[in-house]
Amino acid sequence: MQAVMGDLPDKSRRVPLDVVVMEETVAETFVRRKLTFAVEPGDRCWAWLFIPRQGIHSDAGPGPAMLCLHQTTPIGKDEPAGLGGKPNLHYARELAQHGYVTLAPDYPNFGEYRVDPYALGYASATMKAIWNHIRSVDLLAQMREVDPGRIGCIGHSLGGHNSLFLAAFDPRIQVTVSSCGFTLFRWNNNDGSGEPGDVRDWSHAGYMPRIAERYGCKAKNMPFDFNEVLEITAPRAIFINAPTKDSFAFQGVRECLELVAPEFERHGASNRLVCRHPNCEHDFPAAIRDEAYWFIDCIFADN
Questions:
Q1: Helix, strand, or coil here: 105?
Q2: Which residue in 218, 219, 81 sits closest to 159, CA to CA?
Q3: Helices 226-233 and 250-266, packing angle to 10 deg
Q4: How confident is the model at residue 58 (pLDDT cuts 50, 70, 90)?
Q5: Which pLDDT belongs to residue 54?
Q6: Cα separation, 2 vs 19, whole angstroms
Q7: Residue-wise pLDDT tens digits, 131-177
Q8: Nearest to 139, CA basis, from 149, 130, 150, 148
Q9: DSSP 191
Q10: What three-state secondary structure class fits 26?
Q11: How many other β-carbons are positioned within 10 Å of the β-carbon of residue 86?
Q12: 91-125 tens-digit pLDDT
């Protein structure tokens, strides 16, 4: 993965978080805070933080938390926060209403966050995002309302694959929910405009330019695929939403899981790898979200 994305930064970039709250809203079931925090020297990320009101000044002890990653949308973090965009993607707010501390950061150059990853020495925006998301987990883990042993990640589309990438690099992620996030590269067809194995849509500056520069945008040349990304996380839990009409071919997801299942079986964790195929397009339907939230509940109840 690092051959394609560039190297994961070393600890020298792990500056103090220096969290600054920009605004706060008190709702019936949660407190919502817009904040910025330092992710590395000279760079600050924007995010929405939700804290369930029962978790504030509570004697119940720290609870679970979910990092919530947005899809490709100009409003970035505002969509999972329920402040715009598609209602089916308001999972940061929904999970907060469900009792979870949630954090929804902007991906580089979405929402309010502007940064040039390449000027900072990154080989891809993908690796910059992974680093920012690791720092987001740092933020959650140091909160008194959060049990650092019960942190997960959820995302749709852009957020769906970045949730998996984060889990591969950060073992603190105990459960991952990936909605419409991937297919095996050999099933990828440049977002519908190419032949199977065409991965040009992964190669622009917002993702991984080395896919074009080193690997010719061909799946057969790629040094990793999503079955290996999922295998890295075993036996940590994964819930996948892969609709039958999605632009990411669900057949490639099925094939991926056939390759991954033996690794989860080896760990005695077959029940920790779950996939659903709703009959819809690129979406995260309510019934599937409800099942995903139940899955998260079960995993954290066991931890």
A1: strand
A2: 81
A3: 30
A4: low
A5: 77
A6: 29
A7: 999 999 999 999 999 999 999 999 999 999 999 999 999 999 999 99
A8: 148
A9: T
A10: strand
A11: 12
A12: 999 999 999 999 999 999 999 999 999 999 999 99
pLDDT confidence of 55, banded at 50, 70, 90? Answer: low
Report how far residue 88's alpha carbon sits from residue 80's, in angstroms, rounded to the nearest whole number: 9
**Residue with tokens 């589309």, as numbered in its chain:** 157
- Cis bond leading into 235, ω under 30°? yes
In terms of C-beta distances under 8 Å and separation of at least 24 residues, what long-range contacts does 156-159 make, across chains too? 156/69, 156/70, 156/71, 156/89, 156/91, 156/180, 156/181, 156/241, 156/284, 157/71, 157/72, 157/181, 157/282, 158/69, 158/70, 158/71, 158/72, 158/107, 159/68, 159/69, 159/70, 159/71, 159/80, 159/107
If phi > 0 it is left, if psi is from -120 to 50 it is alpha, else beta; for residue 57 that is: left
How far apart CA 177 and CA 237 sit, in angstroms, is: 9
State how far the Cα of 5 lies from the Cα of 122, in Å rounded to an integer.
8
Q: Look at residues 201, 223, 268 and name the one whose alpha carbon lies nearest to residue 2.
A: 223
pTM exceeding the 0.90 threshold for the entire prediction:
yes
